[in-house]
Amino acid sequence: MTDGPPCRICGSETTFIGTRAGRIDGRLFKFCRCSECNFSFVENYRSDFENIYNEDYYRGKGGDPMVDYVYENENPGLTIRFYEYRGLCQIFSTLCPTGGKWLDFGCGGGGLVRYARQRSLDVVGSEDGWAADLGRSSGIPILTSQELDSHAGSFDFVTAIEVFEHIADPLEAFKKIRSLLKPGGKLFLTTGNAAPWSARLLEWGYTHAPDVHISFFEPGTLRRCLRETGFVSAQCAFNTGFKDIIKYKVLKNIGLHDRSMFLDILPWYLISKIVDYKYQITGQPYGVAGG
Questions:
Q1: CA–CA dist 4, 257 (Å, integer)
Q2: pTM here?
Q3: Angle between the 219-228 and 170-180 helix axes, to the nearest 10 degrees?
Q4: Which residues, in sequence order, are bridge partners of residue 233?
Q5: What is the four-CA torsion angle of 188, 192, 193, 195, rounded to 10 degrees?
Q6: DSSP string covering 200-223, please?
Q7: pLDDT digits (tens, 9 = 90+) for 189-246
Q8: Phi, psi of 88 (to 5 degrees)
Q9: Quick check: 35 and 221 in contact, CB under 8 A?
């Protein structure tokens, strides 16, 4: 039964797979899936961004209770986000061993930008709305979407960390990022891998925040997006920084906020390996901008 709208990636027919209530006002969101490219998405997504990406959201009181950017902004270095940032800087060093100009696309309050700049890396962020103002108030360089237009072809590395699940038109975003990269530049992104949940998508925690999580990708879906927007897809090995990235994800999902000495003595290489085996986090590709 093909009763959904055309796929936003490949244009094929899609199938309605169910509904889930949002957290903000309880409205029902319709989920659809494309059997051609395996992209899943919320059909009737919210576009009133000023109402969903507001101060409540960034304090963890909105559409996704797992985020708290304000607390992280006020306590840099003390929260578990430190581990993710450390892992991402390791990935930057691996993919760009001679350094380069780095953009954190959709940077929220700019925590990664601040962390990387404190380590003498040449990085700026891009964001619009409430979170951008929060970051700029702390002196973090964050460009607006309009300001990005003057930076075409100027970046060696772009990160998009937990960004693409928020975007209704992924191809448009990939094209924008490709325009900002130099030939051979790298796009590293994180977004949940929908493949382990393909037969039971609505049981996946990622779909439990449908006010803000509206696009869901399997590795093949991302490879198609990359290919169609001027990238060559590639894979990062686990030991490039994923241990710390997965460590952060585990701690976040069990409700912890702050770092501690106890957490650091746990066998995180083994724990992260087991989590990656189950959820296939490293299965998602990154992109290399074509010449």
A1: 39
A2: 0.97
A3: 50
A4: 287
A5: -160
A6: SGGGSGGGG-TTT--EEB-HHHHH
A7: 999 999 999 999 999 999 999 999 999 999 999 999 999 999 999 999 999 999 999 9
A8: -65, -35
A9: no
